[in-house]
Design brief:
The chain has 680 residues and is α+β, with helices and mostly antiparallel strands. Helix content is 41%, strand content 15%. The strands form four sheets. Strands 10-11-12-14-13 form a five-stranded mixed β-barrel. A four-stranded mixed β-sheet has the order 1-6-3-2. Helix 16 (316-332) runs antiparallel to helix 17. The longest helix has 20 residues, at 357-376.
Length: 680
Amino acid sequence: ACSLICYCLGITHVDPLRYDLYFERFLNPERHDPPDIDLDLSWKERDQIREWIIQRHGADRVAMISVTNRYGLRSARREAARAFGLPDQPLAPEIARSLHSAAQKLEGLPHHLGVHCAGLVISPRPLWNDLALQRSGRGLIVTQPDMHPVEALGLVKVDLLGNRSLAVLDDTTRIVTHQNGTPPDLSDHERLAQDPKTHAMLRNGHTIGCFYIESPAMRSLLRKLQIRNYLDVVAASSVIRPGVAKSGMLQTYIERTRDPAKTVFLHPKMASLLAETHGVMIYQEDVLKVAHEVGGMSLSQADTLRRAMSGKGRDRKRLASMGDFFLRACNRNHIASSIGQEIWRQIESFAGYAFCKAHSASFARLSLQVAYLKSHYPAEFMAAVLANGGGFYERSTYISECRRLGLALRGPDVNQSEVLDTGSGGNIRLGLGAIRELNESIAHSIVTARRERPFDSIADCLTRTSLGEESAKNLARVGGFSSLDPRESACLLEIQRLFRDSTLASRIHEPRQHNLFLPLAPKLPTSPSLPPCHSPEVEPFPPRVRALFEMEILGFPLASHPLDLLREHLQKDLIEATAMSRYRSRPVRMLGWIIASKSVPVRPNNHLMKFISCEDRSGTFEVILFPDVCKRFSRTLQSRALLIEGQVEEENGSPSLIANRLISLPTDSLLPTTTFPCPP
């Protein structure tokens, strides 16, 4: 995004002049290799765009870049055992030692060529003039050298990066446009940041599902910064990176953002250079500015410094020599030695972790676009998030977020659901693809058959689709035939009857035989359907049994939270996530379902502390385990559901629970045990 040409061509959408994105970071006179071209695309369109590139430039001038897969110790042991003709079973100690010695000699050696997940190379002439090519197992033309020799040859490497959030953006926009007749206006990212609903959502950290700003750490940061505008979101996308935290300036940035009067500049020149970030270096571009203005480097030299600090160009020796150059320049400019050393310490701490403002600006734009869609079209947006595989969290966390947004969750249904999840007008309908044991081809067969005419009975559905017995039973257990019979238990008995009656079963497509080829087979007459159901009068599942089956088959209950099923094990003196701020500096007990965790080594002994993100029915909350607690309850942390005792602490408006005791809850009780009789 720091390329003016890319902006003018509409490849990028952030004005590099308006936001002071340094051109020298992209190209400069001292750079001898071309920059990478990284393009984020909707993950659904990446293969299609790759094929377009091959057709546009010629199959002889485009190739995927290979990766060299090497032997690990385990694969080396298998290879050595195969070479020696040894069986796949426990070996005598003497033979095992010899095998291990041989495997160690193979470890790290090339095993086979794979295909880089995103990289391809484009040449102005046939590629075989410059390097060797071969075909992959999937038939793609790939380079025999990997990315480093390809770059050394001066060829242009392009990364086509699949981004799920771009697909969420496209899908939500398409649905809203279809409903309203006009697309939502997402072109002005600064306006989006000032939209009242979006603004409130950002300040409260309610951004689960939103690209790059949905992690626990980022949501906490948004609350602490009290986001005001687009540039605040840009800064948040960079300040969260480890480099700023390592320099010790993350907390300083938060405090100065909340109270600009606390801003202090290490040197008068930095007042103009770092006014936007309150005197804190948080971008690679900040390093360029300071190295140029304070350290006396040319902008080309400053970019060489940036490259020595980060990525694949990281070079500690060059960084050290540049540090000497920087400090000598500070001395020549009559900057106090202590100030020069502190500036350099902050620069050096960025090594390997600095994030460029150009990336942050592009990320923040997409973050604001999807945040706007979530705040104004929550059902359509959350359905698109679910349909595109989610993001930072697993599927059940996004389902919980749907409940917190007040959306009505509808289960899969053969006459209502599409293959993927859909949303509209405050309702989300789960797709047929959510059912365990029901693969995509079966789901497509149901949707295709239903478009001809709706199913009028379970027998009709089984006759016209490739549903097998197990997938049909799972569908019934979670109400998948509720449009035909609302009693899940009666549907189960009917499915058992149909598959056990040899006459009826012969007219039902077995997926083991026809699953892949059903769309190509001649259509059977729809005829009078199979004999109607004569199930005995049975009651629907009790709510708890229904919820347990949903946990088993969908991964979550639809009408409740998994923790609701465990409350019988608990006492009543619990507080919920939304009440934490009222209990600041007080001991509390909370019930938590773990949705994310991160371990961090603590110096000087590198003992681990943990940051755990949990949820309850009311919201999400963060739990901090210091090393002694983390060690004491390491086995307890293997449980998904916890009763947590500790003290609430709040920092800049963002509460956390400092845990001192954990109790694991019996998640085995979240599996159904109810059995149903077979019909006679």
